[in-house]
Amino acid sequence: MTNGVRITLIILGLILLISEFVCGIPFIGGAIIFSAGWQPLIFNAFLYAVVVLILAVDRQNAIKPMLLVPLIGVVGSFIAFIPFIGLITHWILFFLMIFFLFIVFTAPVYVPNRHAKAVYNDKSKKF
Questions:
Q1: Which ranges does the record mark as transmembrane (predicted)?
Q2: What radius of gyration do the chain's Cα atoms show?
Q3: Which end of the chain has fewer CB atoms at under 10 Å, N or C?
């Protein structure tokens, strides 16, 4: 993954982590979601979908299997419309986002090298 993609995933991951934490607080999160007319859940689903697109489109990505976490986030944001189930869903997504951010922080970064050469000749072949 390139440095720009990594920074974008870290920023989106931190926003989603904070959002899942606030929405997961028993009465405060529910009050925020109900007062906003479930817009925070749609916003979270949108951000998870953006993360899915970034992971799916990036060709240099070493963390393709982590695509499952944002997909669970999209589905979980729509399941969270149910009040008590939503509380549990937000906490599960909170811990999944901690895991996702840990993997993104430890993922290798692709640094292009314009001066690298690959020399191919017949003498280096050994049969």
A1: 7-34, 40-57, 66-85, 91-111
A2: 20
A3: C
Tell me the pLDDT tens digit for each residue of 69-93.
999 999 999 998 888 898 999 999 9
Q: Model pTM?
A: 0.82
Q: For the chain, how many structural domains are there in total? A: 1
Give the domain extent around 43. Answer: 3-106
Of 84-88, 105-109, 119-123, give the lowest mean pLDDT range. Answer: 119-123
Q: How many CB atoms lie within 10 A of CB 16?
A: 26
Q: Which of 125, 126, 114, 3 is nearest to 58 (CA)?
A: 3
Q: What is the C-alpha to C-alpha distance for residues 104 and 45, in angstroms, rounded to an integer?
A: 20
